[in-house]
Design brief:
The protein is mainly α. Helix content is 58%, strand content 0%.
């Protein structure tokens, strides 16, 4: 669809036809969710692109400045989730939405990568990354560079989410339950570091109050240890 080899209407019509012919094999919830993503979210992204460009291409509301780690172009990292998602992306020019948003995009966000770096990677790697559909999802939903125009909260998480939603952590060099120490998953310290450094911006967000209450409950000694680990991770990100 993004390369205009198929029209959205053609895809929607075929999905509904298949559901009507095989109602026992395809549930209404399945076809509704599929159609809604095309007719709803995809067209919403098109509208945002035409309404907000070219200014949207230069937004960086979080003022992130870091470069993407070099292993985004090689997959050579001990973090199993990122190694798998990056290598799959490089091999197939495709990754699932959750791999893009909550693995590669999530890490770039909590690391503080410049959205220009993230845009360049997604446009360079994925076969379906035509700019109008890529940049609104990447710079907007994934990196929160648009200041909240598209999403009500940043799409960031610690290793806990990744561990619950996948089997990546089972065979990883890092421990998803540890926040500090040599084998602590980098997602954990970077996640809390992201929340801490953007506290003024997000502490009042109704969808993030629970996260900040959890951060406060950790106490100053644990907070310092986590932030020190995050500083080490950022300094040695190419070695992870």
């Amino acid at each position: 669809m993004n390369t205009k080899m198929l029209s959205p209407r053609e895809v929607i019509d075929e999905a509904i036809r298949a559901w009507r012919q095989h109602p026992d094999a395809i549930s209404f919830n399945q076809v509704e969710g599929f159609v809604r993503q095309i007719l709803g979210w995809r067209e919403y992204m098109r509208g945002v692109y035409w309404a907000q460009m070219p200014e949207f291409e230069h937004t960086n509301s979080l003022q992130h400045t870091r470069k993407l780690p070099g292993w985004y172009w090689t997959g050579d990292t001990k973090m199993n989730c990122l190694s798998h998602a990056v290598n799959q992306s490089l091999d197939l020019a495709y990754a699932h939405h959750i791999q893009r948003l909550m693995i590669t995009g999530n890490f770039a966000l909590i690391l503080g990568a410049h959205p220009d770096e993230v845009d360049a990677w997604y446009l360079g790697v994925y076969i379906d990354a035509i700019q109008w559909v890529e940049i609104t999802n990447t710079r907007g939903m994934s990196q929160r560079a648009d200041g909240g125009l598209i999403a009500t909260k940043p799409y960031c998480s610690s290793a806990n989410y990744i561990n619950k939603m996948s089997d990546y952590c089972r065979s990883c060099h890092y421990d998803p339950k540890k926040r500090t120490g040599e084998r602590a998953c980098p997602f954990n310290s970077l996640y809390w570091d992201f929340l801490d450094r953007h506290r003024e911006r997000f502490a009042g967000n109704f969808r993030m109050k629970m996260m900040y209450r959890a951060w406060e409950r950790k106490g100053s000694e644990e907070q310092v240890a986590i932030l020190e680990r995050a500083a080490w991770v950022k300094e040695h990100v190419e070695e992870l």
